Queue: 2 jobs
Job 1
Amino acid sequence: MTKTLAAFQDAFAAALTERSAAPIAAWLPEGEADPAGLAVYRNTIAKGCVDALAANFPTVASLVGDDWFRAAAVLFAAEHPPASAALLAYGEAFPDWLAAFPPAADLPYLPAMAWMDRRWTTALFAQEAEPLTAEAFALEPQALAAARPRLHPSLTFAWFDSGLPSLWRAAREPEPGEMELSEPAQGVLIVRPHDTVHSRVLDLAGHAFLTAAADGATLGEAITAAGEADPAADLAALFAALIADGVFSGLDLGDTP
Amino acid sequence: MPPTAGLGLKSQHYAEALAASDAGLWFEVHPENYMAAGGPRLRWLQAIRDKHPLSLHGVGLSLAADADPDPAHLAALKALTDRFEPFVVSEHLAWSTHRGVHQPDLLPFPRTAAALDRVAANIGRTQDALKRTILVENPSLYLPLTGHELDETDFLIALTRRTGCDLLVDVNNVFVSASNLGYTAETYLDALPAEAIGEIHLAGHALDGGADEGGSALLIDTHGAPVAEPVWALYRRLIDRVGPRPTLIERDDAIPAFAVLMAERDRAHGMLTGTRACACPQPLSAAGPRP
């Protein structure tokens, strides 16, 4: 066998995953079949992965408790090790992995909590953009309806069949109270217009508006979509709330007729 | 950059770091924690950089992997060095990424002549990409590997000669490795040429409680405790020989109040400013742009 650097690194990686020094035996002295040092590296790597996941998924960690979270995170890291040294982006696969993780079967809300944590972290590190204020929308009604909004690069929104967004938001409170999953279907909006990530529950009309806007609709088309989703919605209030949320980062004015 | 003492910057201390006005105070961060498109973390770093010198201390470039440095990682590092203009950029004599998997640790390797070629080439690629020289840090070691063709000090010195890089001497890592692998820390430190030393790190370690192993007697480079007295003594000995160098107090776990870390930093600072003037002409000449 050629003892190249790559051969050593292949062997060392195998020794880490197999929890055995056997793969690196060719690089160990006689009588050192099970050196304690290998466990030091293994433990440091596991701690690095688990700490990164705990930082990126704080709601999941607080809901399941530290022991459960760390045990699950070690298993996840073994199956999905980081691909990059920038661990602030680690854990993209964690929500889906939790959904298929047998011990989480009696915690059906957990993957959605992880998904919203993930979107919160993504928003925190997203590209900067100055959100538009109400003045940017002070246009003639026709011009306003024909303008196409650009959504903030940190914005995420989604619809859920139950009150998972309310549960997630309550769980992120510093002192979470009694939490119950009793709300009807609702959406969530997560955005970081300036320094702080902001989230709120989104209603059907708000979700329809953002879905249309994300598809490239004009403001007029997006408002129409919101009204169709919920004929009782207060569309002016809905629009004003989205501006206040900071979800718009630009406005492409259509050709004046 | 005068040889003063700095502190590893932790996010929980941003406001205090920004407000601090201690003479000679500088900060160091892991660039990997700032490899993001935007966000408040980068804004904090910018504000602190506007007031204090900054060092970027990489933990993820994987210089000792048998592969070229990841172009995306290098590009992200270049973007940070362009934006924050650190007075020094450093990395480790270790590997962490191999075949697309990143292990968040600084892993060992047999120091062969072939490995020297590979690490030198990777340092060269890094310095070419960043358009500046870097410092390379000695790792803490836990495994008695065989197959070494060079001592670590000889390996590091060869790297400085072949690439123009300088050395970041982590005195705690020397202490930990010497204890774990059975050599003498003083002999190791004495072998390093003064003119190649651009920065010094000090950190705390712990005796392995051995959660898995029932106690291994290994020292672990935890960065989770104050700097130990024997490490301070080695530091004293080192700066008495080589003269003052920018010195960092590192703390990454069990992080205490800012003032507690600043007290350790002040101890190093006092030792530096009480040390005779540096014997070498340009202690940090290598940290500037390359010709």
Job 2
Amino acid sequence: MSESARQDSPEQAEFRQYCRQWLADNKPKEPTVRLPLSPLEIMTEEQLTYLQAWQKSAYDAGLVGCDYPVAVGGGGRTDCQRIANDEMISARTPFMPNVIGLGMAAPTVFHHAQEALKERLLPRLFSGEDIWCQGFSEPGAGSDLASVQTFAERKGDKWIINGHKVWTSLAHFAEWMILLLRTDRSHKYDGLSYFVVPIKSVLGKGVTVRPLIKITGETGFNEVIFEDLEVDDGYRLDELGKGWQVAMTTLLHERGAGELQTPRSGGMKSKATHSTNTANLIELARATLRNGKSAADDPLIRDRIMQLVIREAGLGQNQRRSRVSALQDHPARLLLQNKLLASEIAQAIGATAMEVEGASASLYLGDNNAPAGGQWPMAYMNSYGMTIAAGTSEVQRNILGERVLGLAKSK
Amino acid sequence: MTQPDNFGFGEEAGLLKDSARKFFADNFTTDRLHRMVASDHNPERMSDCVWDRDLWQQMVELGWTALAIPESSGGLGMPLVAVAGLVEEVGKAAFPCPLLGSLNATYVLAACGSAGEAALTDIAEGMTATLAVTNAEGSWDLADTGVQSTKGQLNGMAHFVQDARKADRLLVSARTEKGLSLYWVATDATGVTILPDAIVDLTRDQAHVSFENVQAQAVSEDGVAALSQAMPAIWTLLAADITGAAEWQLQATVEYAGTRQQFEHPLGFFQAVKHPLVDVMILIDQCKSLVYNAACAVDAQPARAAEFAHMAKASASECAAFASSRSVQFHGGIGFTWECFIHVYFKRQKHSQLLWGDAAWHRAQLANILIGTAA
């Protein structure tokens, strides 16, 4: 029995046992398709189909949405999602494809939608049958999110939407979108409202989804253009003009600081997938020859790698400490560092891996001689998605400085 | 063995940490610290040995010096996570005292088996102690020493002995014909001379200690093994002290950045100030999390204690350097003066950064564990 298991409540202990058994009996086989590095990089229908089947089976078994009420398709349990997450990750399952749905849309819909809408949307979100995407960023609204210009004009009990959203991961597969837009141009924050939009059903009828090609050459995210799209007022979340407050619920959960634990699985190793962590970096250094010796024997490389090992371990221990209230000075201080640290550490690991590879870091996915199949240069380039998305590292430092340290707002 | 999820930081540890925080808040303000240690600014002065013996006596009576001593030797047998919580508060107050030295000696003596028990009882009864295990080079290799032992007599010189003038007893490492032995020696024994160093840090004293035909009884004949076993606790506690002091530096600087106005804004409005302060906080949190992880490993997962303690002290040394640098820089002109309190912490942190191994040294040891010794 693991130490964390020892501190489970009776409900958690029983549930953990159940999850463990179910996973032992039902863990999916390794796919025949190459899996992407993360759900946000799903490129093909084959990848999606495999991952959706996994999410559906985990949901049907009760491992997804555990802490939501039964009425909205949840498991009606208390503080059990993290138990399921622990077990799914230690069983090295595939990841779930509907990450934006689970991590951002679900808590937002749960906190701000009418009861009937929750009951309609959440079960298919948890099962992964409906993939969700997020319509927040715009060409002119990145870090300054509240300056979104996509506009909804009232027409009876309908709204007519016009605008342009960008960096919309999964939009090419999504059934639904959470959409932050403007209903009043005279107030920056109080002029925002929040909708859910069934975008797949209106594709070509006021909605266009176009792929954006990433720095790596991969597709995976998109731009979404609204031209006179008609949406029912019943799809509005919370009150008119409360869009910013609703968006805060979304962002708090996105940053891992919300009250509802996001369902998470993952850890499956396959030849085609590759994790940006220091264990792999050490393996790379061991396998790389430099001046006739292993790169792992080079004192400068060793020091660089140990710096990263320490940062990575520190992040893991922060997450552990964030659950021990006696060892915290401020309730959000550790949680609000999560995304910033995870993304910057991954970037530094990628950068160091390329230096370890030396000249071979020039070789990319299509080259048979590329170390690790060319995955390190790709991981390094992809890491900029993480330090930019969901509030850039600079915005994260503003948030930490202002909310945690209480420094004056920088604007 | 694996670690408990909450680091083993239970109710008792929480109460101890809270009572320490209250003790220093009630009894030892930064203003008092400054008056006590910074009365003489002459850079060529000999370091004083200043400490508040009355408050120290209260700490002894609260049982803080006996926390780590096994119950069988008259102590309280508390886990290292609880002791680390206390030391974090001592670091935050920068309280000059021989607590760390006495705790360090405790962990080494506890690794000496039955021969160390009498010495542990001395500490449990209120005696103060410190380690004298470093040579003139300041080598952190435990097999190195500047003291020799022949026929039960110690001769030579131990260097970089922390808080030597506050200590009643020295735990000395000396080379013997067989290897390295450890000795428990009174500071006022015949042949022992404490030679104070003039140091930058105002909150500690440091000395080199001369031994001339000092009669001594060994507490361990395998000194390297006993020291090796204790070092993870010693590194972890110094890292805990650094964490607490760095938190003081952060809060003092944040407060200043909130009141000092320039260009019609408080300093903290500017991202050139705000973002590095966030980075100081990030380093403190990394360090603090690694400290409790290392402490918990000493308590519950000894096979990985050295690995995790190297991480903690490497992180702490970086944290000490960066928090110190930013605290002076962001206080601007006043931060460069003797009258501003932050120089006291700056100097304490620079001392702690290098003591018992700097960041690069600990990372090199960590690499030996995780990658293997380089060919």
